[in-house]
Amino acid sequence: xxxxxxxxxxxxxxxxxxxxxxxxxxxxxxxxxxxxxxxxxxxxxxxxxxxxxxxxxxxxxxxxxxxxxxxxxxxxxxxxxxxxxxxxxxxxxxxxxxxxxxxxxxxxxxxxxxxxxxxxx
Length: 121
Prior knowledge:
elongated, Arc Repressor Mutant, subunit A, about 60% helix
């Protein structure tokens, strides 16, 4: 699996977002173990400290738990927590930028919705 890293945010955050996406998409389910720090570091050619930092942020948010000697596991209520926080982040950070761009371009929100739903605008 290949990931393109960008310069817009730290790699540990990009990795964290990738793991969050896997949890929200159901690729990692409640109770499942996450790949080990070493596995991810080797697969993506990252420093293990970078991977550990991403894992630590997920643990701090209580969406994964450390089990001594076993690794990191997705918590039972992680998906609901992640959906809530991701929706909040989207509405606070991303949506205002999108609305501003729609207005700047003079686009009609209804025609955008129709296009999104597969109808001709």
